[in-house]
Design goal:
Number of domains: 1
Largest sheet: 7 strands, mixed
Strand content: 35-45%
Distance between the termini: 11 Å
Low-confidence stretches: none
Mean pLDDT: 82
């Protein structure tokens, strides 16, 4: 009975911790939308006249003199991130002793690359140093390939990843997102010493680059926050149920 109580209380506390983590990320998403709303849009040509460290947002067309080629889609771009995600089955023993098989995933390879680019609007242009930004890129590859059991691994970014034993592997998902050239872009950051936009601490740490408009990006953050709220609330309720069951079992044993 004591073991039963410990297991249920531990599960309940773990769910509450997980709910707390999700509520934290929910607050971060909402803070981003509020911050975006506070920063006025600046003409690209005016950025050079602002003091280094000044928060700024620009909207325009992404131009890149020396674009890079994405790993999977082979598309010219100013940024890409390519991932290989292993999807597999994992068997866990539940609190009641039964075995349950779940589908899980893990990132086994990731390759992220930037190229210097500029944002051009009707007033002129401004350079952007993208390293360190939170990038909301356009997904151009998302395919799933079942595991056939052949071959030692996969190559990404010039590196070969060995997946090892595959008896529980279902397959591999290949994803890639890019910032396409000559396409709309939204940049929220701060003025750097060389009068570009980059990763300069403003006290809140917001540096965003998105292929979406400001309005679309704000809606995305609010939608993500709502999902996090619902999941966190569910975990909190389940945690309370586990804790209640464990405490009731302990009191019943007295």
């Amino acid at each position: 009975m004591l073991l039963f109580t410990i297991i249920f209380v531990a599960f309940g506390l773990a769910m509450w911790v997980a709910a707390g983590v999700l509520f934290y990320f929910r607050r971060r998403q909402l803070r981003k939308t509020k911050y975006m709303g506070r920063i006025e849009t600046t003409n690209a040509s005016d950025v050079s006249s602002l003091a280094p460290g000044t928060p700024v947002e620009v909207k325009g067309t992404l131009r890149c003199a020396e674009p890079i080629e994405s790993e999977m889609a082979k598309r010219p771009c100013a940024y890409y991130i390519s991932k290989v995600i292993r999807e597999y089955q994992d068997t866990d023993r539940e609190a009641d002793g039964d075995l349950e098989t779940r589908r899980r995933s893990e990132v086994v390879s990731s390759n992220e690359q930037f190229a210097p680019f500029i944002v051009e609007d009707t007033s002129g242009m401004v350079g952007v140093r993208g390293e360190g930004a939170e990038v909301d890129a356009l997904e151009v590859v998302n395919r799933f390939e079942k595991d056939t059991g052949g071959g030692p691994g996969i190559s990404l970014g010039g590196l070969t990843v060995d997946f090892g034993e595959r008896e529980r592997t279902i397959g591999y998902r290949y994803t890639e997102s890019i910032l396409p050239i000559d396409a709309p872009v939204y940049v929220l950051g701060a003025v750097t010493q060389d009068r570009k936009i980059g990763d300069v601490s403003d006290g809140e740490g917001h540096f965003l680059i998105s292929h979406r408009s400001e309005k679309q990006l704000g809606k995305k953050y609010k939608r993500d926050a709502l999902v996090l709220t619902l999941v966190a609330a569910g975990l909190f309720l389940f945690g309370a149920a586990f804790l209640g069951t464990g405490v009731a079992a302990a009191l019943g044993a007295i």
